[in-house]
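Example 9 (inverse folding). The structure is encoded as follows.
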């Protein structure tokens, strides 16, 4: 699995303390739905928004779910 992170995704992951392994796990195990042409994958406390390009995953952003 090859991930390509946008500049925005890199900044968000760094600010939120999210590792590449956590992003991969969210894509692999998360519940997915479409948002236009983007895929949203949510797993545990994270969401990853990405596009699939052939065998690559282009990561648009990484979000942390807020607690209630």
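The amino acid assigned to each position is listed next.
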């Amino acid at each position: 699995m090859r991930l390509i992170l946008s500049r925005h995704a890199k900044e968000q992951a760094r600010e939120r303390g999210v590792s590449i392994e956590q992003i991969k796990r969210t894509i692999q195990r998360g519940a997915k739905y479409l948002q236009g042409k983007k895929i949203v994958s949510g797993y545990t406390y994270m969401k990853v928004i990405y596009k699939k390009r052939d065998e690559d995953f282009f990561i648009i952003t990484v979000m942390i779910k807020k607690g209630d």
